[in-house]
Amino acid sequence: MSPTAPAAPSADPDSAARQSIRDGRTSLGIELGSTRIKACLIGPDPAAVLAVGAHEWENDFVDRLWTYPLEKVWIGIQDAYAKLAASVQERYGLEITALGALGVSGMMHGYLPFDEADQLLVPFRTWRNTNTGPAAAELSELFGVNIPLRWSVAHLYQAILDQEPHVEQTRFVTTLAGYVHWQLSDQRVLGVGDASGMFPIDSTTVDYDARMTEQFDDLVRDSAAHLRIRNLLPQVLGAGTPAGTLTAHGAALLDPSGSLESGAPLCPPEGDAGTGMVATGSVAPRTGNVSAGTSIFAMVVLQQPLVGVHPELDLVTTPAGDPVAMVHCNNGASEFGAWAGMFARFAEAAGTPMSSDKVFGTLLQEALNGEADAGGLVAYNYLAGEPITGIPQGRPMFLRTPESRLTLGNFVRSQLYGIFGTLSLGMRVLEKEGVAIDHMLAHGGLFRTAGIPQRMLADSLGTPVAVGETAAEGGAWGIAVLASYLEVAPNMDLASFLDQKVFAKAPFTIIGPEPTDVAAYQVFLERYRDGLAVMATAAEVL
């Protein structure tokens, strides 16, 4: 073959992937979710996933606070990366030695305070904690915007109100993604989307709101005079901004085997809400997405500011800094997962063991045999408190009346409706504000079973719901895409990059709401709303 002759098409479909891995032209995304730490590797084509690895973990309830020990963070990250590397070795016959870029995503909000020696002062307080009510209420009134219970500034101010000793030593506060990024790159930065869950952001400056930072400093001048909020928080960066490089120490943290080289550029660390927006291509006005996991939340990109202040809505941003209304529910699919585990044990005890995917698939399929209003059954997935509905502590419940029709189909449908119940209440606030949405894009493990959860979400929202092939990869793929965006960011905005480079040929399945099922869901939702009084009582007496 002459030097100028075109290369013949390769018979090996993985040859391009192998070359990308050899050349270090890949992007790695790591996401620390509520129940899984996941690693996702993509090549020059960001729509194509080359390999994944995952590690299961669970939060701990210690001293009445939800937490994850930091040692479990690194055990999980290393395990997820090792499984990804093993997958690369098995499929492509290669060892990962270099990366083109990488990024870190994590559960948004929460509280990680460090002292001047970079030592963690109290165990990581996650988004799930609801002990910050007095602080959130006072800050919401002071700022004139809703400050949710889980935001970092609410945790910080609650610690000040409670006169916790560690406040005097606090010199730096960050999120889980910010912490991991800091350890990998030695940079104390944060993507604007994740930063908007720490402290209110001014989208015109893509930085913390200047007026509110001054108000906060004035508020704590007598009780914590040494604190200046800007000095405590990470530097804010928009998507596509270089955010440091992988240090030798960071490479060893990721890959203790020593195979991975340092030097790869990092994108700004982001929260799972922001990477969910990227993973669904929902960063432009009139788009929105739903992420369903341990928590469930919806993100809707706004065309204009909201008229009122609503406790059901968070005002956050896209990874590029555009304003977003977020409906965040503390409780997602975990309770349904617990029921599925019981059914799996029943199958095993009966001598017909089934895989987890088979159990979920069977239950979800049975939901189609249920009545459209779940037959009078009501399920609450409240493992933790739920600020949107004013329930302070978690008490999962399944309720029925003597007239309810207790069938397996109705039971499963009520569990699915229960996952979407609190979200529906929050989304109705956006409807009253006149916020228009063309369709919602859904992602997360719940949507691995095609069609059924998607259909019921569409009925619960009264809006078409789209699911793509990468839905189950979720935020780990989303942050890998943000890492790959670094290369083209100087010449292309994020929305154009997603439209033209990531989702141009991506197949989506869209399911619209059925009018009769929407009406039936409304019957369920009224029953669900009425039953919240039972939930409140249960939190008091049990």
Automatic annotation (TrEMBL):
Domain of life per record: Bacteria
UniProt KW keywords: Carbohydrate metabolism, Kinase, Transferase, Xylose metabolism
Family: Belongs to the FGGY kinase family.
Span of domain Carbohydrate kinase FGGY N-terminal: 28-252
Annotated region (Disordered), positions in chain: 1-20
PANTHER family recorded: SUGAR KINASE (PTHR43095), XYLULOSE KINASE (PTHR43095:SF5)
InterPro entries with a match to the protein in the record: ATPase_NBD, FGGY_C, FGGY_Carb_Kinase, FGGY_N
Name of the molecule in the record: ATPase
Biased composition (Low complexity): 1-17
Keyword Kinase set for record: yes
Pfam families: FGGY_C, FGGY_N
Start and end residues of each Carbohydrate kinase FGGY C-terminal domain: 289-485
